[in-house]
Amino acid sequence: MNPIIALLKEHNISDEQIKAVFQALTENPLMAMATVQQLPIPPEKLQQLMGLVMQNPGLIKEAVAELGLDYSKVEAAKAQLNK
Q1: Domain ranges in the chain?
Q2: Which listed residue, of 39, 45, 61, 73, carries a Cα 20 to 30 Å from 8's Cα?
Q3: What InterPro entries does the record tag this protein with (predicted)?
Q4: What is the pTM of this model?
């Protein structure tokens, strides 16, 4: 299991909420951050999660694939942010 998904499940985040976070990520990465911050995860664990993602951005792609979402939307959103 992807470490991001595992950490979310460790804090009793439902599969529906996890999918919603990654769906938001594929549509609007900035909104995904707001969604993640609303989850009942202690700040130190949230910081750990962010560090994990920053050290290994490929984990997001793996999680998106594991959830059956379209990663090309993440790439499109990143390109839009870089304009």
Answers
A1: 1-80
A2: 73
A3: DUF2999
A4: 0.77
Nearest to 37 by CA among 66, 8, 62, 14: 8
List the structure tokens of 27: 């549509």
pLDDT of residue 9: 92
> Half-sphere exposure of residue 83, counting CA atoms within 13 Å on the CB side?
6
**Beta carbons of 29 and 78 less than 8 angstroms apart:** yes
Q: What is the pLDDT of residues 17-49, one digit of tens each?
A: 999 888 888 787 777 778 888 889 998 988 888
* Tokens 């939307």 sit on residue: 73
**Where do runs of H (alpha helix) occur along the chain?**
3-10, 15-27, 29-37, 43-55, 58-66, 72-81
